[in-house]
Amino acid sequence: MAEPEFEQAYKELVSTLENSSLFEKNPEYKKALEVAAIPERVIQFRVRWENDKGECQVNKGYRVQFNSALGPYKGGLRFHPTVNLSILKFLGFEQVFKNALTGLNMGGGKGGADFDPKGKSDNEIRKFCVAFMTELSKHIGADTDVPAGDIGVSPREIGWMFGTYRAIRNRWEGVLTGKGGSWGGSLIRPEATGYGLVYYVDHMIAYASGGKESFKGKTVAISGSGNVAQYAALKVIELGGTVVSLSDSKGALIAEDGKSFSPEDVNAIAALKVQRKSLTDLERHSFKYLAGARPWTHVKVDIALPCATQNEVSGDEAKALIESGAKFIAEGSNMGCTQEAIDAFEAHRKEKKGESIWYAPGKAANAGGVAVSGLEMAQNSARLSWTSEEVDEKLKGIMKACFDNCLETAKEYITPAEGEFPSLVAGANVAGFKKVAAAMKDQGDWW
């Protein structure tokens, strides 16, 4: 069966590894790649639940436990009608190396169901969560596999699933992250992916400008309007940047006439999302909603942050961003750019050197969310809670270490030409893969 998303993620990793000096210096790592490309375990199950009319409904549930060399499997649960094994394998594969880049002891996995929460009552969603966790609970645990939320799975759904796990297993343990603050959740967890993305890009800006520039005065396009996009927008605004777009699955909301999104606008969008309403409800005199559009070709910006879903920046859109003078693009979503887009950004980086656009992949730039999930696991294990300031400082430190790791690894394995920005995509891939492969070798997974 064809698995286009997984094949795309695999080829993207392999192409950068092959174009680096990694296999030349360590030819045995080719065997590690062969082993690491296959999940340790794929669990598929049916989820039977009852709608409000008393009718039996059935969905497909999944958990892909990809790699546990560095720690318990860690990765989100996605409830969306497009969920299938290809998407979950791609997400799990990316998660393995993303988690490695955080420096925390976490393996990689991903799961979910082809359940569509849209149009369902709260009671129906609760019943689905109970049915889903009744089966999943057999395969997870605080030291085995620790899922989190993803698309369609908010803290509310995490709560229902946690309660089901606790009742079935008769254990209170940190088996899920993204929990409520009063029962084991970490402060800064909802903000972490968006904040971490902005912290990562801030290091890119500082490096590219020799420390002379920051987000202050920069114009930023953001796609998406969920958790990641909202908190990325709020952090950009806090750091002095101007946000000129957000979007949803049906179109893009663009700020016009020199206007921009304020924190109040972002909060209004957050309220709409809770009510599962469209961004068209926010169309005001200073915003224009473009149905069926993504923001990249409709605004002139310094920074682009795709924060919605996979493959949301095409090759043509990448070229449009380059031609409009954008200087930085970093993925808040997983595999937000198509391979054609990545190729365009990387070609421009080599051609224009210090005057080029600079691309950062999601496995590095959006690692802040899972990093704070790892910090939540640590707090649960120690039965303590850290303050917002403590968690935010740890997040900043993790994102700086992640950026430095990508940068130095790129310099070591893909020597940049004079005046050229190091390839962050290659640096992230080599650094993440090397760490996982070395742990696998030590544990006898390959030899």
From TrEMBL:
It catalyses: L-glutamate + NADP(+) + H2O = 2-oxoglutarate + NH4(+) + NADPH + H(+). InterPro entries: Aminoacid_DH-like_N_sf, Glu/Leu/Phe/Val/Trp_DH, Glu/Leu/Phe/Val/Trp_DH_C, Glu/Leu/Phe/Val/Trp_DH_dimer, Glu/Leu/Phe/Val_DH_AS, Glu_DH, Glu_Leu_Phe_Val_DH, NAD(P)-bd_dom_sf. The keyword Oxidoreductase applies. Belongs to the Glu/Leu/Phe/Val dehydrogenases family. This is Glutamate dehydrogenase. NAD(+) binds at residues 193, 227. Gene3D superfamilies: Glutamate Dehydrogenase, chain A, domain 3 (1.10.285.10), Leucine Dehydrogenase, chain A, domain 1 (3.40.50.10860), NAD(P)-binding Rossmann-like Domain (3.40.50.720). Substrate binds at residues 74, 95, 98, 149, 373. Keywords: NAD, NADP, Nucleotide-binding, Oxidoreductase. The keyword Nucleotide-binding applies. Homohexamer. GO terms for molecular function: glutamate dehydrogenase (NADP+) activity; nucleotide binding.
